[in-house]
Structure formats: structure tokens, C-alpha cells
Design brief:
Blueprint lengths: L1 H5 L7 H19 L7 H19 L6 H33 L5 H12 L3 H4 L6 H12 L1 H14 L3 H24 L5 H4 L14 H12 L9 H12 L5 H20 L5 H25 L9
Helix pairs in contact: 2-3, 2-9, 3-4, 4-9, 7-11, 7-13, 8-9, 8-12, 9-12, 9-14, 12-13, 12-14
Length: 301
């Protein structure tokens, strides 16, 4: 019985309920603007399929054997795949239903704070070596965000893993709602005519940049900065492994926050919003997790 508790048991977990709520929200958006959204019927069908898989997994009665192992791994890890699919979905929804663009407003806010456009001002310290280093930092975002829960998984600390999956999935989904509310593409598009020189790295810069551009699919994904938000969350969670790892994550967080502006992906207003969202989630998520847990499960139970 203790082993079953450590593995979460049957029934819906807090992360399931958060994902159900997000599916209801995005599904409602797709129904309301069905005629405007390319492939809206296909997107709705994917939602139904995803919810059905979660329901089937939650109701699985196996307690051992191959089926149990597959279901257990699916239930713990599917939120990561889900939020990746939702990111791609938003790349379709935003251009179809949101015609307002907030790049100029965010750039104006930056200028009013700093007296200059940060991405333009930072050309003073531009160097190919620094550009290469910061692009590597930026590109490693997803592996770094997932490293902590992966270590926790292999340490068989399943209750803590469930909370981490909940917090990270919640963080990603909240940022997607922000993208829909405040569509913006970033200073590398709006302020490109003000930049005196293009970014140049050493060896892998253009490959990494092209890869990310392909994955982002011309997304309006600036506000809030998901890179800032999720890295702060991962940094906070890294404390559960060791103080040394937390220090490494803290340094990485400082680097990626700087990289988002230096590489012209974000306005500084995006970073502030991402940090605020992360702090709010760090403070509110434990209570929300207990409320959504059928047995009031807490972190580390």
C-alpha cells in the first residue's frame, strides 16, 4: 500500500485536473472561433483523444506487470508532451484570433524605463564568443528545465516528481495564456532596423538559431518570458537535490535571463513578467496542489 501511495495511486492527480481545465479553456476558444482557426476540428479531436487517454490511465486497475509499468510512466511523464503540443497549438490560435500586437507597447515600456532599447544598447558589449556562449545557454533551456525532475525520477522520489511535473506544467500553461493575452514576437523583429550589426557566433550559433526558429514556428511567445519563468521554477526545485546544484542553476538563471535580451528574443518587460509569474506560482502552487489532490497530498509525501 505504501508503494502505491508513493506512485500516486488511481484517480485523477492535480496535474490531470490542471490539464483538464486548460483543455476546456483552449477547446472553448476553438469552438467560439471555429471558422477562423485552421484545422480547428483536428485540434478539438486531439483534445478529446488526450483527455480520453488520461481518463483511461487514471482508471487503470493493474497493480503490477507490463501494463502497470507503461501506465505508470505515461501518467508521470505525459504532462511534458502535453505542454509541448499546447505550445504548437498556440502558434495556430494566436494569429487566427488575435489581431492586436503588443511589441510596440513593450518596446516603449522598455525605453521609458532604461532610456534606450536594451537590445540596441547591448551592442556595445557584442562579441562572437559571447554570442555563441549565450546562444548555447538559451538553447539548453528545455534540457535544463527537465533535468531536476529527471534526477528525482531516477532517485524514485515519485511524490516529489508528481509535484514538479505539476508545477512545471502549470508554469508552461500559464505562460501560454499570457501569449494569447499579449501577443508579441520580440525585439529581433520590431527593432531590427535599429540594430547596427547582425548577431554572429563562432561555430554553432546559426545552427542553433535556425533550429529554434523552426521549433517556435513564428510564434507570438514573448510575454511573459517562459524562459525566465520556467528557469526560475527549475532553479527553485533544484534545491531538493543539493545546494551545489542549486548554485549551478542560480548562475544558469542569471545567464539565460541576460541571454534573452542580448540575443534579441525578449523585452525586459517580458523578463519581469516571467519572474513575477514564477514567484506567484512558487508561493501558490503548494496550496493549490493540496487542494486539487484527492487525499491532500503534499510535496514529498
Amino acid at each position: 500500500m505504501a508503494e502505491m501511495v508513493s506512485r500516486g495511486g488511481r484517480g485523477f492527480w492535480p496535474v490531470d485536473k490542471v490539464i483538464f481545465a486548460y483543455c476546456a479553456f483552449s477547446g472553448a476558444v476553438e469552438l467560439i472561433w471555429f471558422a477562423r482557426i485552421p484545422g480547428a476540428g483536428f485540434l478539438l479531436a486531439l483534445h478529446v483523444l488526450g483527455v480520453a487517454l488520461i481518463v483511461l490511465a487514471a482508471g487503470n486497475t493493474a497493480t503490477a506487470g507490463p501494463v502497470f509499468q507503461v501506465v505508470r510512466r505515461f501518467r508521470h511523464w505525459y504532462p511534458i508532451l502535453f505542454v509541448a503540443c499546447c505550445y504548437r497549438e498556440m502558434a495556430t490560435l494566436i494569429p487566427a484570433i488575435r489581431h492586436a500586437r503588443f511589441d510596440q507597447a513593450l518596446a516603449n515600456l522598455d525605453f521609458s524605463i532604461w532610456g534606450a532599447y536594451p537590445t540596441v544598447w547591448l551592442e556595445r558589449i557584442y562579441s562572437p564568443g559571447l554570442t555563441e556562449f549565450l546562444q548555447i545557454i538559451y538553447t539548453l533551456f528545455i534540457p535544463v528545465a527537465l533535468l531536476v525532475p529527471t534526477i528525482i525520477w531516477f532517485q524514485k522520489r515519485y511524490a516529489e516528481f508528481r509535484y514538479m511535473a505539476f508545477l512545471l506544467a502549470l508554469g508552461f500553461l500559464v505562460s501560454y495564456v499570457g501569449y494569447l493575452a499579449v501577443p508579441a514576437r520580440g525585439p529581433r523583429y520590431l527593432l531590427d532596423h535599429l540594430q547596427q550589426q547582425p548577431l554572429q557566433g563562432l561555430w554553432l550559433f546559426h545552427f542553433m538559431q535556425a533550429m529554434l526558429n523552426g521549433l517556435e514556428h513564428d510564434h507570438y511567445d514573448c510575454f511573459p518570458s517562459g524562459h525566465t519563468e520556467l528557469t526560475v521554477l527549475a532553479c527553485w526545485l533544484s534545491r531538493s537535490i543539493s545546494l551545489r546544484l542549486f548554485r549551478v542553476y542560480f548562475l544558469y538563471t542569471l545567464c539565460i535571463v541576460f541571454a534573452t535580451v542580448y540575443l534579441r528574443y525578449h523585452y525586459t518587460a517580458d523578463l519581469a513578467a516571467g519572474a513575477v509569474v514564477a514567484i506567484v506560482l512558487i508561493l501558490a502552487a503548494p496550496r493549490l496542489y493540496r487542494v486539487l489532490s484527492e487525499k491532500g497530498e503534499s510535496i514529498g509525501d
